[in-house]
Structures are given as C-alpha cells and as structure tokens.
Specification:
heterodimer; A: about 110 residues; mainly alpha; about 0% strand; B: about 180 residues; alpha+beta; 4-stranded antiparallel sheet; 1 helix; about 15% helix; about 45% strand
Chain lengths: ~110, ~180
Amino acid sequence: MDFVIGMLPESVRNLPTHMDFDGQRRAERIFQIIIVLFAAVGFVWGYICQQFSQTMYILGAGFVLSCLLTLPPWPIYRRKPLPWQKARPSVDEKEGSTSQAAAAPAGKGKKKK
Amino acid sequence: MNTFLSRANTIFAFTLSVMAALTFGCFLTTAFNDHLAPVTMNTAKLIVKNVPDYSASREKNDLGFITFDLQADLNSIFNWNVKLLFVYLTAEYQTKSNEVNQVVLWDKIIKRGENAVLDYRSMNTKYYFWDDGNGLKGNKNVTLSLSWNVIPNAGTLPKIKGDGRHVFAFPEEYQSSKF
C-alpha cells in the first residue's frame, strides 16, 4: 500500500485525509441522525402503503446518504485541529538522549489536554 | 472513527441494528391480529370404497371420495407482515381405533398480491382420503374445516382455524371398486 501511495504525484499525496477528534464526533452524530430519521420515515411510509420492502429501501437510501456524507474525510470534519506544541528548536537534538526521553512523556501529557 | 474503514464498519453495524429494530416494530404492529376470516363449505358427491392401499399393505382400507364447495375471502388477513398463506382443508372424525383422525384433503398457497378470494364448486380433493381401517363407512360425523398457516416477514407462525365448518356423513354402503 505504501508503495502505491509513494507512486502518486506530490499534489495528490498532500491532500489531507484525516478527521480531527471533533470531526469524528460530528461524523458519528451525523450518520446516526440520518439513519434513524430515514428509518422512522420509512417505517411510517411502509406502514401507510403496507409494504415492508419500502421501509427497507428507504433505510438503504439513508445508509447510502450517510456513507456519502461521513465516509470521505470532508474538510468540514477538519475545522478544529488540535493545538499542537511547536516543534522544539533543533538545539535539543545535540543534547544527550536521556534528557530527550525524559522530556517526551511530559510533552505527550500536555498534548492530550 | 478515525479511518475510512472503521467509519464504514460503524455505519454498517448501526444500519443493521436499526434494521433489526424496524423488523421488530413491523412484528409488533401485527402481533395482535387474530388472522380470522369466515368460511362456508359444503359437500356434494359422497362415496366410500373399500380397497387395498398397495403403498401401505395388502389389507383393504376405507377410501372416501368427496367433492366440496368452498367460499372464503382471505383478503383481510394480508398485511405488510404476511408473505403468504398456506391454506388447507382437513377432515376430522372419530373412529373406534382412534379418538382423533385428521386427513388433509386439499391445500393451496396464496401469495400476497394473488387472488385471495376462494370460490370453488364441486372441487375434487387433491389428496386421497384414506382411513387406516374401516372407519369411514357409515361415519355420521365427519367435520370439514379450513385452516391456514400465516407466513410472516418477522414474528410467529400462527396456525389459524377458519371460522366455519361443515359436518357430513358417509353412506352406509361401499361402492363397488372398479380399479
């Protein structure tokens, strides 16, 4: 897979493909709302025309729509990127490896907040 | 939710759960139907013969021949949770050797959307009316009734006895068998 990606042109490789945490939460909320809404409408419509297959088709439509809206990492799911700390100046690299190891956990803790 | 595949998996699983809930809801909307319908029946030609059933043994058993009229409108039973009805006509009677004898004489599958109004006159039975002895000759109390199994999309498989029956008697004499 990495080999294939490496063959792609630079412009394609630089396309952002991730969702931030808030975007993931929004994506999950969006597909839940869409599918439940389509299911409710489909149930009522299927009951009115007394065809359970209609209910299933409408639910299928909701499934396809929610796939289109939440499967690709659309830009709308990238609006709240995490405020990462700035990269440390390269002076750190010259220092001993022990100090780097000690600094790393502390840095991670800060990122999570 | 952080990769394409994990989102696809979550959406698919969620849709399946919703689908199961919908199916259960469909079952609930029809769970309390009684699936009943009125049936009227009559019999015409009644003959009983005493012939050997070679598929079972060489002994002679009673074999009844009847023709029947049948009127029933089963349209009211169909709804969005009924795929088809399996309708069958049974004769029930009592003999010395058995307290309860039940013989299926005729059946029919009615799918949803097909004509569900049964209106037959002088129909022949579809299956042989064999007794396992000599219980048919002169039997005064043979009850015809129409029953059906309801085959749903989801839920129970009710076995319903139609509202209406017909009692008839077989003649006292065998008709000579011409086989």
